[in-house]
Design goal:
Elements: E1 2-6, H1 10-19, E2 25-30, E3 43-45, H2 51-60, E4 63-66, H3 73-82, H4 90-96, H5 99-108, E5 116-119, H6 122-132, E6 136-140, E7 150-153, H7 159-166, E8 171-175, E9 181-189, E10 195-197, E11 201-206, E12 209-215, H8 220-236, E13 241-250, E14 253-260, H9 270-273, H10 278-287, E15 299-306, H11 312-316, E16 321-325, E17 335-343, H12 349-356
Helix pairs in contact: 1-10, 3-4
């Protein structure tokens, strides 16, 4: 079976690595000459809107997928017509690309969100803040990720600088959620409507970038709530593939932050920490195969490596630790790899975590 992947980043790389043991073949399309998935699969170097190269990929592949949601929706529609299958569906991609469409769909499905308002001028920003009150978060409707394209507004004097920094493109103002924790729901849905949910994951961000994920989070009420809300979204979109839905937790209830129609950073722990990784289950889903078990095996922590990879020997000297480098050149603020830590019991994670945290530039809590 030949799988084409639009986008050649680390998520495509890990999809390829998960698919080779299943006897799958891959090609990836990406504009970057150093796309890290190009180390593990043939790379078509091309802009995403180059019709000739898109046709080349579609002609070769029996199934198409993507590794990030900023693939132009028009490209998704074109590939859907040209190939035997393109999953997740183009509608999910279009919804995830625009925060207004995303929040509107959440609202229609009864998925709680922060209050939000569209912003197209500085005057509209002042009016919305007067209704919503501060603090609030001003975001670009499109292309924001890892904290990019957004500003937290805490005082009236923050409005004009934020508008000057972000204005000129459609914006969204969201009420600030004083959350107690952040969590994510990961789910795979097959062609036949079969849904498999992974255990709830707790996430820690710094400077808008995910730094640590812990799974499973033993919070049965929140997990059931998250699964129920995610199910609404999966069924509404007739979704096929792996989907991540990120939430804030406020007063023991969930408020949706955003969705990602793809394999997700907060699911990397599943490579060693679940019976079936998110990458294998995404491939199973898009190929029409039965989904694998999503049960956690013991307890896991994932740590992102930002800017540069830590020294390999120091990481692998920690019992239960695993080292995943993406083949990326070091650069400040860039995700270049991740580490995972596994233990049979949650209390056994702490000793190893204390050794790994300084290696990735984080401090131990407390």
């Amino acid at each position: 079976m030949k799988i084409g992947i639009v986008g050649g980043g680390q998520l495509a790389r890990m999809l390829v690595l998960a698919g080779y043991p299943m006897g799958l073949q891959f090609q990836v399309l990406d504009p970057a000459i150093d796309a890290c998935a190009g180390e593990v699969a043939p790379l078509i170097r091309s802009d995403y809107d180059d019709e000739n190269h898109l046709q080349q990929l579609a002609d070769w592949a029996e199934m198409l997928t993507f590794d990030f949601e900023n693939v132009p929706a028009t490209v998704a529609s074109t590939l859907k017509r040209q190939a035997a299958g393109f999953y997740p569906p183009a509608e999910a991609l279009a919804v995830a690309q625009d925060r207004l469409h995303e929040k509107t769909l959440f609202w229609e499905l009864g998925i709680p969100t922060p209050p939000f308002a569209t912003i197209d001028s500085l005057e509209e920003l002042h009016d919305a803040v007067a209704r919503m009150e501060l603090p609030a978060v001003l975001k670009t409707r499109r292309l924001g990720y890892d904290g990019k394209g957004q500003r937290v507004l805490r005082a009236p004097e923050d409005l004009k600088p934020a508008w000057e920094a972000l204005g000129g493109v459609p914006l969204l103002l969201e009420g600030f959620v004083p959350f107690q924790r952040e969590v994510s729901v990961l789910a795979a849905r097959g062609h036949n409507g079969e849904i498999a949910f992974y255990p709830l994951v707790e996430n820690t961000h710094r400077d808008g970038i995910l730094r640590l994920s812990r799974a499973p989070l033993l919070a049965p009420q929140l997990e059931r709530e998250g699964w129920n809300l995610a199910r609404r979204l999966l069924e509404r979109l007739n979704y096929v593939g792996l989907l991540a839905l990120e939430f804030f937790v406020l007063d023991n209830h969930l408020i949706a932050n955003e969705m990602a129609p793809r394999v997700h950073n907060s699911g990397h722990w599943t490579i060693e920490g679940a019976v079936t990784s998110q990458f294998e289950n995404h491939l199973r889903a898009v190929l029409g195969l039965l989904l694998g078990s999503t049960a956690a095996v013991g307890h896991s922590i994932m740590l992102n490596c930002i800017g540069a990879m830590p020294e390999r020997a120091a990481v692998l000297a920690v019992p239960g630790a695993h080292y995943h480098a993406y083949g990326k050149a070091p650069r400040p603020g860039r995700k270049v790899g991740h580490l995972t830590l596994w233990a049979e019991h949650p209390q056994d994670l702490q000793t190893g975590l204390d050794r790994l945290l300084p290696l990735v530039g984080l401090e131990s809590p407390g």
